[in-house]
Amino acid sequence: MGIATRVCFVVLVLICTFLREGRAATFTFVNRCTGTVWPGIQSNAGSSRMDPTGFVLPPGTSRAVQAPSGWSGRAWARTGCVQDATGKVVCATGDCGSGSLECNGQNAATPATLAEFTLAAGGGDDFYDVSLVDGYNLPILVEPAGGATGATTCAAAGCSADLNERCPAELRTEGGAGCRSACDAFGKPEYCCSGAYANPSTCRPTAYSQLFKSACPKSYSYAYDDPTSTFTCAGGRDYTITFCPVATPSVKSSSGPGATTAAPTGPTPTLPGATPQMPRSAGGQDGQGVMLGDNSWLASLATGDASSAPSLPPALWASPLAPLLLGGLLVVVL
User: Fold this and answer.
1) Cα–Cα nearest to 217, from 318, 290, 129, 277
2) Environment class of residue 49 by beta-carbon count within 10 Å: exposed (0-12), middle (13-18) or buried (19+)?
3) 242, 30 contact by CB (below 8 A)
4) Distances (CA, A) of 163 to 30, 113, 212, 248, 303
5) What spans are recorded as compositionally biased (Low complexity) (predicted)?
6) Closest by alpha carbon to 241, among 202, 290, 188?
């Protein structure tokens, strides 16, 4: 068996392994609020870390972040963030207590609207929801890429309503910038689904959770709201997380710690219920824009024939195996 044949065999094995195990998902964060938000990301215990764990997202901009295969965790928006003379970052809502742009494994302070994910490691289904169990600070819409492929709940999830405008006075906080959950505000077992209420039979919707549910029917309003609020898609797809999908809520601060990004193009997403796709740039991968677009077949560059070269499937470029695949193919060509 010649060297070229052996290399081809190794490359094929690597490709088969990659296709069996699946690829990492890309989360595109979009800010359609009137002011800057500072997304935070926390990985669940036992899940690989997603980097970065926090960043700045000015109004009208987007940023793509790649998640490890099989990742599970949550994402949210921090608002009203300021940086003091010592460089410490503190946010009015959703603060993770890290004192920096990155949350470094720390969770959001309540109240905060949470986008929660459990991604398939390979061959299974993704599960996701938008939760108001820890309260609300901004509307969030989660959209899966592509249409449903057998899963009946593969659709847009989230809340487009401005709950801060209709928040009861006893739940209102941060000068109207957040709406606490009843559990957070009162700490009673019937609101927290704890003690004698720690099961779906005894912990039922309350007047407060029903208020959230009526405004945001595709969000998780209390601990046992699973049947109508958990969404499922076949694994291996990307997701768009849009803050203020109808661009109505005002964020108190339009500037703060962090850098700016390029503005996305295209229309504003619709309300939950459909699965419109967010516009995606075919531009560069500077870590701030949307990391999509065709990539030319590197092996063809070695022969000087880049014009007629086929393209790698986008999934392979996102794989950590890509350098090995390209190296093997270059050996074959040369």
Assistant:
1) 129
2) middle
3) yes
4) 20, 11, 8, 11, 59
5) 256-265
6) 290
Give 70-127 as a DSSP string: T-EEEEEEEBS-EE-TT--EE-SBS--SSSSSS-TTPPPPSS--EEEEE--SSSSEEE
Residue 35's nearest CA partner among 56, 54, 55, 58 is: 58
Whether the per-residue pLDDT at 67 is higher than 70: the answer is: yes
21 vs 193: CA distance, rounded Å: 37
Q: Are 157 and 219 in contact (CB under 8 A)?
A: yes
Q: Which two tokens stand for residue 66?
A: 């790649």
- pLDDT tens-digit readout, 98-116: 999 999 999 999 999 999 9
Element (DSSP H or E) covering residue 159: strand 157-159
Q: How far apart are CA 108 and CA 141, in angstroms?
A: 18
State how far the Cα of 117 lies from the Cα of 104, in Å rounded to an integer. 18
Instruction: Check residue 252 and give its pLDDT.
Output: 53
DSSP string for 277-324 = PPP---S--SSSS---S--B-HHHHHHT--TTPPBPPHHHHTSTTHHH
Assign domain 25-162+216-243 to a CATH class. mainly beta
Query: Which percentage of the chain shows pLDDT scores above 90?
Result: 60
> Is it the case that residue 206 has pLDDT exceeding 70?
yes
Q: Does 251 score more than 50 pLDDT?
A: yes
Place of tokens 């790698």: 312
